[in-house]
Amino acid sequence: MSKRFFFDGSESSDSGEDNLPYPKPLSRAAFLTPDFDPATFLSSLRNRHQTLEDLRAELRTRSQDISKELLDLVNDNYQDFLSLGSSLQGGDEKVEEVRLGLLSFRREIEGLKSKVDERKREVEDLVAQRKEIRRQMQLGRALLDVNYRLGELERSLMVASNEASRDPQANDVEQDISDGDDESDEDQEGDVSTSRLDRHVRQYLLIRRAMERIGLEHPHIINQDARITRLKNTILLDLGNALKQTGGGDKEQTTKLLAAYRDLGESREAVKILKERKQ
Questions:
Q1: Do residues 99 and 91 touch, judged by C-beta distance below 8 A?
Q2: CB count in 10 Å sphere of residue 238
Q3: Which residue, 120, 127, 200, 259, has most beta carbons within 10 Å?
């Protein structure tokens, strides 16, 4: 019997009749690697002295051997397979118990979710209420500030509001305060102080801006229309008297008075008074 040799340490024949190299059988370990890739495996066989048909036949034989081994394994362990099937009987009851447990857990989760959503809505409502209360408080403070400023300007201009007219004692106090202001603001010649008029104009403009920030359509602001109109008319009357007294002689004072008319949006009234003065 002739002896074969294999290429790269494989068997070879020592007779002269057949001393060609034969490739080693394909290793089973090469197919068991986790990252096995057919294309990579075939490319690693490029140095094998073997035709493609021989390689295909060897792979086919290897596949048949593996199938036979699997069949032998099943036949040898057939009794164990049957025992495994019988041991799995009654598993439906366990599955049903798990399913019922999951359904109960799901209902509990949904109940908790609904409670969390309800609590979230309650918190959002409370936050909205808090914001509204804070806004109302700020509005109330702004209204009180406007009312206070109106009262201050009325006392300074000696204009009695409706509330003050119903309180004679308050009128007497305001009259005393106003008399004191008049004495300090008028000069020795009895002319109306320009600084006092300018202060009245600035106070009036601040009140108007505060009312506009609140909103001229607010009911309380609408109720103050008569007071604000009376204050403006009184300021215009004082400005007119002061402008007539200057007669255009004091240019600096005349310029200040015209600027006050401009701030009040009554420049035409100032021009009218100057024209009447020249006539």
A1: no
A2: 19
A3: 200
> Could you give the CA distance from residue 119 to residue 117 in angstroms, rounded to a whole number?
5
Which residues pair with residue 5 across a beta bridge?
A: 11, 12
Q: Taking the complete model, does pTM exceed 0.90, yes or no?
A: no
Query: Which range among 175-179, 202-206, 255-259 has the greatest average pLDDT?
Result: 202-206
State yes or no: pLDDT of 202 exceeds 60.
Answer: yes
CB count within 10 Å of CB 163 equals 12
